[in-house]
Design a protein that fits this description.
16 strands; Alpha-Beta Plaits; 6-stranded mixed beta sheet; 33% helix; alpha/beta; 9 helices
Length: 432
Amino acid sequence: MDVVPLDPALVERISAVVDATADEIVAFTSELIRIPTVNPPGEEYETCARFIGDTLKRFDFEVQYVAAEGHPDHTAAHPRVNVIGRRQGRHPHPLVHLNGHFDVVPAGEGWTVDPFGGLVRDGKVYGRGACDMKAGIAAGLFAAEVLRRAGIELPGTIEVSGTVDEESGGLAGVKYLADTQWIAKDKTDFVIIPEPLDVDRVCIGHRGVYWFEVEAHGRIGHGSMPFLGASAIEGMSRFQALVEEQLKPKLAGRLTDVPVVPPGARHATINTNGIQGGQPVDGVQTPCVADHCRAIFDRRFLLEEGLEFTKDEIAALVNEARRLVPDIRFEVHDRLIVHPTRTPDDSPIIPALTGAIQRVLGRQASLIASPGTYDHKHVAKIAGVPHCVAYGPGELVLAHQPDEYCGIADLVAATKVIAIASLELMQGAARA
């Protein structure tokens, strides 16, 4: 499916409509920020889905609300409700799907503005989720709308979705839509996810994730006679020493060919996410040797490493710990596995977006990959749609930070880019 660049006059028309709509785009973003869709636990999801859905209906979309029925996180107190808007043109295909998650992480401390105020000041819109990724939802939604306002008959079909729980893995969001065939290889041709990875960069994938738990079982004993027990905490310390002294130097020497940013993330990495063992530090003091200790590790692996190699390497390290501290029984439990994802090099979605960036911003786009994962994984691995990228407004380094914001100029530019690229993709030959 070839991408044919739009006529320059049509590009100018689309850009002019976006400029005329800029205040409305900003106001919509600000309103989204004012809905505190904090995850966990998943607050105000249905309110936000309905707000997006009502806007899509005003913009002549057919709207469906998709609750994650049967998912354990979908409860009466915190319903997991996704929304999808669809507008078909002359043909059902090519179908371009624009997806954004509306859940946000907790605000945290350090803010100088109201994190849920949606403040607009000095060319920026502020608030938790401003860049990650409520501005992206606005860019995608209005990219579709400006094509209608520009009087353009769609040659294919465009969809816009707002989904839940991306910050906690997307299981009740995009994964649920993929599992239930709302996004599927026989239906969906292209997916653009407007995540905040900088307005002149197209994200073509991400590293793999292996979250695992190591559990150390020792033997309880009196704290005055620790030699009669076996400390699980000390056993875990031995394992952590192996991670620091043996594994980390190896990982630092491995470099992927995938253009992951920032540069340090092109290497394989491991992080200790948390440790729990022994008596509660703030509880009643008891003179006991710790007989149990748990630790959670976050191993980001490269496309070149693969999951089996990664798991085997951890298993070998655990076996070495068992040899060094034979009184401790170690167990390993898988917690989360995400395989690396990469858009095919010859995918039409890449030149559609890089070409649109060149026309809108007047500079060459760069291709990058994300240091963390996003909903691309579900689109590629479960829905089976290879032509997926992330592109949207907002600076990656501002995500999850206090005083998070998105620049209005970037929001407007990204809306233009997504509109132009989506139309070019829909102008490809209709699929049989």
